[in-house]
Amino acid sequence: MPRHEPVPLEEVDLSDIDGFANLRGFAQLDTLRAEDPVHWNPEPAPNHGFWAVTRYDDIWAVDRDPETFTSEQFVNLEEVAAEDREVRRSLLETDGPRHLAMRKLIQREFSPRNLLNNYEGFLRELTRRTLDEAFAKAADNGGVIDFVEEISADFPINVLARLLDVPAEDTGQLIAWGNEFVGNTDPDFAKVRADLEESEEYKHLPFRSPTVQEVWDYGNGLKRERTGGDGTDLISILANKMPEYGGPLSEQDFNMYFTLLVIAGNETTRHAISSSMLGLMEQRDQMAALKADPSLISGAVEELLRWASPVYHFRRTATRDVELGGKQIKEGDKVVMWFASGNRDDAHFEDPYRIDVARANVDHMTFGKGSPHLCLGNNLARMEIRLMFEELLPRLADIQLAGEVRRVRSNFVNGIKAFPVQVTPA
Question: Which of 151, 200, 226, 314 has the most Cβ atoms closer than 10 angstroms to its Cβ?
Fold first, then answer.
């Protein structure tokens, strides 16, 4: 990812989704880190603006202090009306003991030991199958495939299908749902774009999406089949296990949990794999280093996650008046942590726009670092990325772009939706 042309401070507007096109968002974040690291960003009505926090240390200060910076007022830029909050509340918008209890329901399934013992062998075979099919398709098409469609989207969604114990033929629908929710401002994905007035009709629904009811109906069908059973898949756990605090999961709790799994189990890993591959193609000395010494791949995963930064930001809301970075933040102000900016902070990462697969101690912010809201699936994502590059790189004699790389229209997800490549098998 080369540096974009600098953006003057007066032109910075992180609320402008189109201002993120062609990676210009990173250039805006560069400007803020250098000139105004805790920056007030106005927004069009009905929103009221937000504080953009862009330096690593300030982001970390916000993320580790849920008492001062709560998630309960929602974690995206949209200001959800009070009457709509409960129906839209998920694990992401829950703090305190209830949040911890809901996380613990499935936390063990994502522990490094459980993943190593129960999933690594399966995941490696699944990776190989994905690549076998992709390379076979390339052979039939002059070596050309879309990397996203054939590799980086196919693999994580099949992992999710295994975790949820759903039929393989349902994976296409799961991908489409995840695209629509995370890409809810992209005309290629969203049936009703969340940034347009037409979405007001659906403001009471997550992502302002009319499709979310389809996802809930699908998830509840699985739940009914497995309630009272002894299954070990994630749906069975959510259907049958009681949280340690706050009572059983309500229907709403289950619906939102299932929706998050559909998204988190596919979207972020997919975009991390795509961006990492593109970065290695742009910085071929680093791809060559991994091919020459595959033992570097395990450590390089952290550097690739830093560099890829598949999620630009998450929001918190100030619960009291507080000073941050020399600015006076008022109770009720939105405070937005730009994780992608923290991952480019040259106070923490030397030459941050360079991929360095041998970089040591890559303490990146991609998963929320060590906050209470640390991504539950971070260990699974790490394993998926490692296995993908361990299996993919030895198969490649060469890989070149075969067309335009197209990115998701979003200031939330740093995603790639089209990535045509020409592969030459080793």
Answer: 151
